[in-house]
Amino acid sequence: MAEQIVRRLLLVFVVAAVALVAWSIPEPDVESTGSEELPDPRPLSARSGVWYCGGAEAETDPVLGAALPVAARAEFSLPVEGEFIDAFERRLTSPGVAEVDVGNWLRFHPGPALVEVSSSPSGAAVMLAGPSQLAGDSCQIAAKEWFLAGGTQGPVERLTLRLYNPLLEPARASLQLMSEFGFEPLLDDAQVQVAPRDWEDFDFGPLLGERERIAIKVNTAEGVVIPSFASTGQEGLAVWPGEGLSPAWEFPVVQADGTSATLSLWNPGAVDSNATVSVHGTNGLIDTVTLTVGSQREERVDIAAISAGDVAARIESDLPLAAAVLTSGPSGRAGTVGAPRTLNQWLVPANNLIEDLRYRVVIFNSSADEVEVVSRSVGNETANRVVIPPGVIRRQVIVGKGAEISALGPVSVGWIAEGVSDIAIGLATPVPESAK
Question: Which among 102, 282, 406, 436 is most buried, taking Cβ atoms within 10 Å?
């Protein structure tokens, strides 16, 4: 472990040295996406058999869950320095949620996890629970290009970037960082290498100092790198993953009761973007905000100034953007990303993953027509049916582990988990038609 700490300290010194040289380097060329084919956003892939969960360095224990709509096997692995320090196999003879509470074996394990399942569709999620902190989100699949928005580094707010390599081969990635000052040469195009089955954490306090807005692009040059943000403050812990770019984003949970949310829109392109943000509640559309997101800039929308309590949001832009939300207040601190597409089928592996928490599944119908929705815990024959009017969110308490959501029209689905002193929000796993 001492050897690992030394290696990571050396990495920080190397990055800082790169930054001193990089101040003299001009901003990187950014290609316009105005007339090009839009990039594919974060893949919709409940068909995946492998899920990567980022984790965070905190006083929390990971609880991993895999939603399996058919009888199947799930294996949960915790890689550290090229080895699996533990692997747990769960076999389900009927549909349900396979789960592992890592804290039963390893106290405050900081590492990420690998989840492998033998069936499709499936979904995986991680909850991070501790005495005073709670966080969670869906696990990811591999991609070559990632965008992380919504970061802040302040006097009491600490932001950490995690790069996780789940494979047996070394991984290499380059980083580009933007702040309220525009392009930041610090870390720009730094070739970061991540050892096999290991991770690197970047604490932006000593690297950057205070920044109100931090957004990062991660390009994977070799192997597989799974990036994520972790933000800690007086209210608790928030984690959220990287994503792709999309001209449309839906956040079925953009703010939860007892918190105030800020929605971040990042434009990494060379052309200014015109965007519209609509905020919705249980009675429909609340308000609409229009804004221009400048080239290589991040703009933020104060959701709490529009409405209090549980609300959803939809972003529509003339150019592809990255987006994320951070919400905090007396109930705690949480963050997540949105869905680039609406679909008829969703899995919620996080639902009731930890028994002592209060969970709500949130379904958002942003369409112009009412939609009938059927919801049940995974493998449960008893279902709830509800008709959701246009532009409305519906919160449901679904008894049992996990949740399956089936709608007669496209919707987006998220979840909220409330603890004693902190809160977590996340996006459900979409199930494309080809995965069923």
Answer: 102
Amino acid making up residue 137: D
Confidence at residue 191, expressed as pLDDT on a 0 to 100 scale: 82
Identify the residue whose tokens are 């090009």. 36
Which H helix or E strand runs over 21?
Answer: helix 2-22
Written as one letter, the residue type at 262 is T
Question: CA end-to-end span of the chain, whole Å?
Answer: 44
For the chain, which ranges sit under pLDDT 50?
1-45
Q: What pLDDT, in 10s, does the model give residues 4-49? A: 434 443 433 333 333 333 333 334 444 433 333 333 444 444 556 8
Q: How many residues in total does the chain contain?
A: 436
List Cβ neighbours of 291 (8 Å cut-off, separation of 6 or more): 265, 274, 275, 277, 299, 301
pTM: 0.88
Residues facing 162 on adjacent strands: 201, 228
H or E segment at 16?
Answer: helix 2-22
Pair of tokens at residue 360: 């709500």
3-state secondary structure of 206: helix
Q: How does pLDDT run across 292-305, given as a tens digit for each residue?
A: 999 999 999 999 99
CA-atom Rg of the chain in angstroms: 20
Rounded Cα gap, residues 164 and 81, in angstroms: 11
Short-list 422, 427, 283, 281, CA closest to 358: 422
Contact yes or no for 312/359 (Cβ under 8 A): no
State the residue for tokens 């953007």.
321
Task: Look at residue 106 and give its three-state secondary structure.
Answer: coil
Computed over every residue of the chain, the mean pLDDT equals 87
d(CA 285, CA 389): 11
Report yes or no: 92 and 37 within 8 Å, Cβ to Cβ. no
DSSP code for 17: H
For residue 205, what is the enclosing H or E element? helix 204-208
